[in-house]
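ok, trying the design again with the full structure, not the truncated one.
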């Protein structure tokens, strides 16, 4: 496994670094994930994505035919390192670009790639993920959103929940069950502006509405919007989920050490001793090397396998632990949210979701246990 950057990736990194230094607005640096005014936060990430696209920086590792630069995955790593070092936000379509797009490249048609990848990179289309339902979260097999064949396409009805940024999305990669087909679980592309789609935001404990309920009442889905085959949805979703739990969270995971530096500086400014953060620094290095290993594994054409749940658990629990250490050191100052601590408090609250979304820690641990031949916590 070679994690060093090639000459082409080094050139790309140096040029991108200069471009980011000259282009990234100061007020967009080190904005915690998922907080603040929803529309303003989404607009910032969307504009950032558009700027990166127009500069030709997005998805350097994608094939040129899909809108990338055809560089290696080492250039993707360089992209992430530059953004993290600058405290830049994630482009809005990180979800679509790192979770759904690889699945579309692997299982979709040329026509689908031509129709969807360009607008995704340009941030003309924002994508959301329609997997979870009121009765199907960890156990996605319980999904009941049904797609009834109708003429050339399908009529879809059901309900999704916890759908991040659905309020701002133009497209959704949606899991449905096609009726009349044994195990008809299928991935389709949903156009969010079709009649019958209703999005209702849900307020989370930070006060923002990152996620939503999505109601589907007789919504038409075109036959050419099936990704893969009818009934092949698990294979497509498993491929996508492995990326959600690894490369999809790569920028957030690599950001742990930058956040620790900011945390340390903030503690010192408040007259506190940040020495207790040393354990978190050690954990952040473990997260960092796991994410780099995942990228290198994918670069070699292999699936991340158990590295994906390992990365998910290390990052999400590591992040929660480092924010908990901050509270242990600075205590009531943080929880009272005074004197510049408000963003830290909201980051702490939002981090509670990180061991849930993308698959809970319990589910990840059971996957890891299974791969080691150990029993799950349910026997
Ligand atoms: C901020 C946030 C954003 C999200 N964004 C999206 C999104 O964009 N799209 C989307 O589709 N979903 C999204 N989700 C939903 C997320 O994927 C689910 O919440 C998650 O998969 C858990 O499902 P659940 O909430 O139904 O909980 P449940 O599956 O009901 O689980 C409840 C508890 O039981 C435990 N449990 C369940 N089954 C097992 C088992 N077999 N073994 C051991 N323990 C088990 C779980 O670990 C958990 O502690 C988001 C969630 C959050 C918090």
């Amino acid at each position: 496994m070679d994690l060093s950057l090639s000459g082409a990736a080094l050139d790309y990194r140096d040029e991108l670094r200069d471009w980011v230094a000259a282009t990234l607005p100061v007020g967009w640096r080190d904005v915690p994930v998922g907080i603040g005014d929803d529309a303003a936060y989404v607009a910032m990430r969307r504009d950032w994505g558009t700027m990166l696209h127009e500069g030709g920086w997005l998805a350097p590792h994608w094939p040129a035919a899909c809108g990338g630069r055809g560089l290696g995955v080492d250039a993707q790593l360089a992209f992430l390192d530059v953004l993290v070092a600058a405290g830049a936000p994630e482009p809005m379509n990180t979800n679509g670009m790192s979770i759904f797009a690889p699945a579309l490249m692997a299982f979709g048609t040329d026509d689908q790639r031509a129709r969807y990848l360009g607008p995704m990179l340009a941030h003309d289309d924002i994508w959301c993920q329609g997997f979870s339902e009121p009765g199907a979260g960890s156990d996605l097999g319980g999904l009941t959103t049904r797609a009834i064949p109708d003429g050339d396409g399908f009529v879809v009805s059901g309900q999704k929940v916890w759908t991040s940024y659905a309020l701002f999305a133009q497209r959704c990669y949606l899991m449905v069950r096609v009726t009349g087909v044994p195990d008809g679980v299928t991935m389709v592309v949903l156009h969010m502006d079709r009649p019958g789609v209703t999005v209702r935001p849900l307020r989370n404990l930070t006060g923002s509405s990152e996620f939503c309920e999505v109601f589907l009442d007789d919504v038409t889905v075109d036959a050419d919007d099936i990704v893969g085959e009818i009934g092949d949805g698990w294979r497509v979703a498993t491929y996508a989920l492995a990326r959600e739990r690894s490369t999809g969270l790569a920028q957030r995971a690599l950001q742990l050490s930058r956040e620790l530096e900011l945390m340390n500086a903030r503690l010192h400014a408040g007259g506190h001793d940040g020495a207790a953060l040393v354990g978190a620094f050690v954990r952040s290095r473990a997260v960092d090397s796991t994410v780099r290993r995942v990228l290198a594994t994918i670069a070699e054409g292999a699936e991340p396998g158990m590295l994906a749940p390992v990365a998910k658990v290390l990052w999400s629990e590591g992040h929660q632990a480092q924010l908990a250490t901050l509270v242990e050191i600075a205590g009531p100052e943080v929880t009272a949210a005074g004197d510049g601590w408000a963003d830290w408090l909201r980051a702490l609250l939002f981090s509670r979701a990180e061991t849930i979304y993308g698959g809970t820690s319990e589910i990840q641990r059971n996957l890891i246990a299974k791969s080691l031949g150990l029993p799950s916590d349910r026997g």
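Keeping the full-length input from now on. The mean pLDDT is 93.
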